[in-house]
Amino acid sequence: MSSFSSFVKEELSGVIPEARNQRVAELAAVLLMDGRMRLEDGEPALEIVTEHSGTVRKYFTLLEKTYKIENSLSVSVRSSGGGAKTYTVLMTGETAVAAVLQGCRLSVEGAGEIRLKGKRLIYDSGSRQAFLRGAFLAGGSMTDPEKFYHLEFVCPDETCAGLLREVLASFDISAGKVERKKRVIVYVKDSERISGLLGLMEAPRAVLKMEEILVYKDVRNGINRQVNCEAANLLKSVSAATRQREDIEYIRDSVGLDTLPEPLAEMAEVRLQFPDAPLKDLGQHLSPPVGKSGVNHRLRKLSEYADELRGRRSI
Fold first, then answer.
1. Can you list the alpha helix ranges (DSSP code H) found in 108-157?
2. What's the whole-number mean pLDDT along residues 143-150?
């Protein structure tokens, strides 16, 4: 999980809705995205598995505040070799499990898969926002916007992915879909839509942090464009000056600069004397001084004459 994902989830885990229907919608999303039914000592048990401790705290708080369920919950922690932790939260007790499933309008199918029964649970804007928040806590991740813009939800099946895209579309956020390792990924790539989604999920600090990064990247890209433009112009000027010197030297070695009209001869001498000077500065060394366009005109005449001489030599 990227550090930015953890930052977002930490902020979302502290948002506890006052409205019961929003708490229920968020719980339903967590269980839909990450829950499954299993047997524990022959009794039905609801299980979620997460790598984020804040999600565990949020799940406990929502269940206790909404259904007064506390003693039916247990959590176990497993550490991997890299130091990452995986939390498994188990809800036991047939009465508690049934109350949560019924309240969240969830059903159990197949080998313990959780399904949402209809869409009545997310009928208004507030419950849809809560649903998105729970979905991100349970199955979402986001790439650090310093690198590129990508936010995704890992859904257990096509039905869940379709529902999630429908909820996003209700807020004018279009999302793509792709299959990966038997899961369905719903993703958003546009920076403006991602920022809007973070705002909908009530993560204002994450929005602010992302906007700061966007401003920094815009400034940095602007500076890079300016530097690249200046470098390209410098290279162009150096190449032109090199070509001009080569042409003048060719004239000098072929027929001599004294064969040129006085203005062109003076221009040729000044360019050879100041090989890297820009056109504006070259003009100041002429007598009388000549502007940039006048200098360019004389140098172009010298190049045309050099090409003419080369043409004669090739006959």
1. 125-139
2. 87
